[in-house]
Structures are given as structure tokens and as C-alpha cells.
Amino acid sequence: MLMANLRIVTIYACVFLCLTGRAAHSQGAAPAKPPAWLAQPVTIVSREYTFKGLLKAISSATGRTILADGEPLKATITEGFSGSAREVLDKAADRFDFSWVVNSRNTILLNKRFHDSDDIPQTHLPEMQRMGKDIMTALDALHFDSNVTHDKLILNQLYNSLSPQQKEVLANRQPLKFQDVSAEQAEVMKQAIMNNAASALYSVWDHVSQQLMGVPTSSLYTQVYEALAPNNFASTTSLYDVCFLYRNYQGKEYHPVLASQRLPHGN
């Protein structure tokens, strides 16, 4: 459940950055031209390489600094590479399950892809807890109503403020543009948009942050119970759940089910 929430949060974080204007400067910008050195020929002789050894060889051949985030699951490879610097980087990074980019300083940055199911991301609990608190602090600084049930009240307020002419535009199935409303109506519209976007984000991060803070005192447990058998309401079947037990900052206890499985007949 925690990982699922984190995936959802990644999507909402992009929306949040756009709303705060941090991504606005990139709109309409022309794509950066790839550096010329990526087309230069590179040859890496065939032999056994550790990850660090291969990066050192590529760095020497290209004259570029290479930084990698993390260590690969694979210890060594025995292979050689020949082609343009781009082609060699593509192949070498792929062998160790990495992706790569070139930053503005022409430094090559490698990041783990985690395509291998046996390779899992590192988890640093104090850092994750601090991240959760920082995001909640940033969200608390925004002016929005975290209660999603109030959205209808705001929309009703907006509609009631419309002039007869504005209502006629809507009745004719025409859009009412932002520049055609009053300053007061514009504020209500912006508040409705902010509430809709930020309230969902706040709810997700509040839940994730509380789970992260509760990890040191949390526990896993299982429970077995009888339930009606699927497609056969006259009989029962045994189910067992794996649950995550934690307490929020107010001390309230939660135990969401992480997984549920039907036991084989006779157990």
C-alpha cells in the first residue's frame, strides 16, 4: 500500500510543480542540442569489467566525468564495445540496468532502472520521513481547503455570483473564459482549482507521512477468518490477511490489509 501511494504521489508531485510555477519556465523552450562529443567514435576493448572499471574506461575514452547513483546487482560483465559515444553508453548502461543523461556541465549521470525484479531500491527511513514532513510543510503553506466535500460549496458560490449574461453563455454550452469574469469570480475559480488539485495531494501525503513516521513502532501481523466462498454462498472458506499496524501522530491505531489470500481447502 505504501509503495502504491508513492507511485500516485509521483504523478501528483508533477501537478504540484506546475501549479507553483516551477515548471512554467520550461514551456515553449527549444529542445537542447546534444553535445557533439556524443557522436565521436569510442572503442572499449573486450575483457572482464566491474561496473566501476567499465565506467573508468568509458570516462577515459570520452574525456567526460561519469557519476552513478547506486551499485548494480550484476558484479561483472565480459564484453567490449565499439561505436559512437552515445551507442557505447547505451549498451554499457543497459548491461548493468542503468539509464543515462548528460547534464549542462557535460557530466554523464547514470541512474538505476530497476528492471531486474531481484534489484530493489534502497530505502533510508530517516530521509523518507524528513521528505514527508517537508512536503506536508510546503502543502500547509498553500491556501486551499483540504476537505474535498467543500468543493461543491465553492462551485455553488461561483455559480451564484454569475451574471445573467454569463449564465446564458453557459446555457448555450459555450465556455466562460477566465479573462471574461470579475476579479472576485477569478479568485473563486482559482480557489476551486487549487482545492481540487492540492486536496487530493494533501490527503495522499498525509497518509504516507503518517505511515512513515509510524514505522519504528509499527508491526506486521496475520489473521485468519472464515468468509463466504466466492460463487458459492452456501459454504465458507478460510482467508488470511497480512496487516500493517501503526499509530498516527494523534495515537490513533490503523491496520490496513497489505495482502489477502484464500487458504487451500482443508487447512
Q: What key phrases describe this protein's structure?
A:
4-stranded antiparallel sheet; 3-stranded mixed sheet; alpha+beta; 3 domains; 267 residues; 7 helices; Phage tail protein beta-alpha-beta fold; single chain; flat; 9 strands
Tell me the distance between the termini.
28 Å
| Oligomeric state of the chains in view | single chain
Determine the CATH topology of the largest domain: Phage tail protein beta-alpha-beta fold
- Sheet with most strands: 4 strands, antiparallel
> What do the pLDDT scores average to?
80
Q: What's the CATH H-level homologous superfamily of the largest domain?
A: Baseplate protein-like domains
Global geometry: flat
